[in-house]
Amino acid sequence: MHFGYFLRLDMRPSKHSDTPNDHRGDWQAIRSLLPYLWEFKWRVVIALSLLVLSKLANVSVPLVLKEIIDAMDKPQAALAVPVFLIIGYGVLRLLSTLFGELRDAVFAKATQRAIRRVALQVFGHLHSLSLRFHLDRQTGGVSRDIERGTRGIGFLLNFMLFNILPTLLEIGLVAAILFSKYNIWFAVITFVTLMIYIAFTLFVTEWRMVVRRSMNDFDSKANSRAIDSLLNYETVKYFGNEQYEAQRYDEHMQCWEVAAVRNTTSLAYLNAGQSFIVAIGITALMLLAADEVVKGTMTLGDLVLVNVFMIQLYMPLHFLGFVYREIRHALADMEKMFGLLHEHREIADAPDAQALSVGKAEARPRHGAAELTGAGVAASHLLPQTAGCASNVSEVRFEQVSFGYAPDRQILFDVSFAIPEGHTVAVVGASGTGKSTLSRLLFRFYDVQQGRILINGQDIRSVTQSSLRAAIGIVPQDTVLFNDTIYYNIAYGRPAATHQEIIAAAQAAHIHEFVESLPQGYESMVGERGLKLSGGEKQRVAIARAILKNPAILIFDEATSALDSKSEKAIQAELHAIAQNRTTLIIAHRLSTVVDADQILVMDKGRIVERGSHRELLAQNKLYAQMWNLQKQEEKIHPAD
């Protein structure tokens, strides 16, 4: 089976094959790092200067060693001469190492700052991409791509500047010394050996890149499979599919294992070939040098000089082969990370986008306000911009909106309605009729294909996304929390809020007493995606978060769906209080939660088929009345506890 896979891996065309476009992409990746280096240009200049000094000291070591040997080959020479040279030899050895260490210390800040800036840029770009991208992505694969890419940046910067460049500089200096001091054949043999070595290294390394990319792909897929399985731990347990998940994970790991073995064996072949070339070159040079010593045209010191030069040259040259391989690997690792930066931003601010203008409205009595509970009013008065007082409110208007997530899957058809300032409009209907799509469009997670959405007469496509989303608060049906404390998750609605405001928001959402009953109180961790809390507790946290944000426009998307009947009534009264003098859109399945809305829209198959107040819709005796009667019958059959 492994052999068959090797054949498939060899024969199938790879989308990552090394073409001129790939090399242009490599150079583009390298060029993209230059601005980060330019920020520390003086550090770069100092580091390069130290690099040159280090290599000059390193090349001088064999020259001094030659003089020491020649001096000691003459017994009549004064003892002070070799002692002086030996001291100089030691100083040069020290300087070659010291300059290298200083170079690394000076350049460290530039490297780490580049890694930080690129990682931040990718992170910010991922948050700027559309919801469509994030629904399609695999979290584990993306996180592994970023991890490998940032690691590759550090390797690329350090080894390109401080290994390839100094090695080439050292090769040039050694070749110049050999050419000027000795027989031209020394330079010819050195040059030919270098060319064969470099050509062999480049050829084999390019071939090995296909295997490396395959390893990366299988590694990302395996990581995605593992994270997805762990995130859905409960579902795996419900169906007893631990072995099934392990098998799926192992399928990717098996492919990775095959590619990893091939990567290691091909590396062994490469290293063996490099050693063979170097051995032949050094042997030829030593034979030539020994012949010159026998003829008397070279001293014993010259023989040692050539030998040390060759060893000193081929050691970094052998390392150069490793560095080139790793740089190519780093570029392959960076390839996907930089590919994330080139992901198209489906939703972007217009070049002339302005901040959303949110209007003012005076306090006025609202239908249903008299029904507020004393607890609701008491909690509300602690919040900023007290519910029921003058507050920022806005008119929302959908005008002939049509939308589909894909060309062959249209969700909304010619939807038009308005939510006047400070009013509440509810949208009801069966699942899949497009109710929740309205909230996604209002947040501008997607752009409408036809029609437009206006807030205070401003097309939301003409305002900045940040100002638009700052004006809207939502309590979603599926509440996902950060793996942090309850306090952090509530404060996320407005991170700059005071402690008192956060506690007041929790009280308004009727979760304060529950949190206080926990051993660690507000510092209790909620777990991955809030799994340590029940559905109702998570929803109360989401309500508190929305209350704390204090937006001009509120969206309740099945906001009480995870609550029991008693809790629902208590929170429903508070939601009425919160909605006072705010423009509110309620998306609901339970009709009992929307009877007090100023207007109710009934959706069916992506269209608004009925609209009016609760009483008006019942009087029409159409779809809404049928839904109402059906839910009443269900309540009689299954009364709430």
CATH topology of the domain at 23-341: ABC transporter transmembrane region fold
Mean pLDDT: 76
Give the radius of gyration: 36 Å
Beta strands, count: 12
Give the full name of the CATH homologous superfamily of the domain at 23-341: ABC transporter type 1, transmembrane domain
Separation of the first and last Cα atoms: 60 Å
Taking pLDDT < 50 over at least 5 consecutive residues as the criterion, the unreliable ranges are: 1-21, 360-391
Spatial ordering of strands, largest sheet: 8-9-10-5-11-12
Give the count of helical stretches: 20
Give the % helix.
55-70%
Which structural class matches the secondary elements?
alpha/beta
Tell me the strand percentage band: 5-15%
- The general outline is elongated
CATH architecture of the domain at 23-341: Up-down Bundle
Major β-sheet profile: 6 strands, mixed
